[in-house]
């Protein structure tokens, strides 16, 4: 997001595919990976958006409620349900923890996630994003779209990907 620029030269890609009972997500970051704080926590976490993490926002087509998923390169994860934009946040139980795999070298960080969903597939809107925390404390915000003047991954106008009903 232009309001939180990074001094580093990053390139961010993300993609998704439907898999039986869930989603397969891939986040790819190119740049000076050694500049990032990657953490070392694993398992279910809280407030992961305050550190380097990959995010997915999933909304049923035509609904005001949505789901937020956070994944760190170290293997921590979080899942939430919202009744409306930034309202009614509750932890979301998953059928099993996400399978998070990370590969990296000096110029590339790839995080892949197999996410089992606790609800039936349907028609969805999806937003993919990442928060990058650098060793010097700088935070930058990356998404397929930034619809507003401030970074806000919860803005439904940023949920750009359509996933058809299975």
Protein model, in words:
There is one protein chain. The strands form two sheets. Strands 3, 4, 5, 6, 7, 10, 11 and 12 form an eight-stranded mixed sheet that branches. This protein has a four-stranded antiparallel sheet with strand order 1-2-9-8, with no helix packed on it. It has strands spanning 11-19, 22-30, 43-44, 53-60, 66-71, 76-82, 90-91, 99-105, 108-116, 124-133, 139-143, 161-163. With 166 residues, it is an all-beta fold.
Total number of strands:
12
Estimate the strand proportion: over 45%
Mean pLDDT: 92
Report the structural category.
mainly beta
Helicity range = under 10%
Taking the alpha carbons of the first and last residues, their distance comes to: 33 Å
Q: Which shape, going by the Cα principal axes? A: globular
Sheet bearing the most strands, described? 8 strands, mixed
Number of helices: 0
Poorly predicted spans: none
Order of helices and strands: EEEEEEEEEEEE
CA gyration radius, whole angstroms: 15 Å
What's this model, at a glance?
With 166 residues, this protein is mainly β. The chain has no helices and twelve strands.
Question: How is the topology of this model organized?
Answer:
Elements: E1 11-19, E2 22-30, E3 43-44, E4 53-60, E5 66-71, E6 76-82, E7 90-91, E8 99-105, E9 108-116, E10 124-133, E11 139-143, E12 161-163
Parallel strand pairs: 3-6
Antiparallel strand pairs: 1-2, 2-9, 4-5, 4-10, 5-6, 6-7, 8-9, 10-11, 10-12
């Amino acid at each position: 997001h232009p309001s939180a620029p990074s001094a580093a030269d990053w390139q961010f890609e993300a993609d998704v595919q439907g898999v039986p009972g869930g989603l397969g997500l891939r986040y790819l970051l190119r740049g000076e990976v050694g500049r990032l704080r990657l953490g070392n926590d694993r398992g279910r976490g809280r407030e992961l958006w305050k550190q380097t993490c990959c995010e997915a926002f999933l909304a049923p087509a035509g609904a005001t409620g949505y789901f937020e998923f956070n994944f760190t390169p170290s293997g921590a994860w979080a899942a939430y349900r919202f009744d409306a934009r930034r309202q009614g946040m509750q932890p979301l139980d998953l059928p099993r923890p996400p399978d998070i795999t990370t590969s990296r070298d000096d110029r590339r960080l790839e995080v892949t996630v197999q996410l089992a969903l606790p609800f039936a597939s349907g028609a969805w809107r999806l937003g993919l994003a990442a928060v990058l925390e650098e060793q010097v404390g700088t935070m930058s915000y990356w998404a397929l779209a930034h619809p507003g003047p401030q970074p806000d991954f919860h803005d439904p106008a940023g949920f750009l990907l359509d996933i058809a009903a299975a």
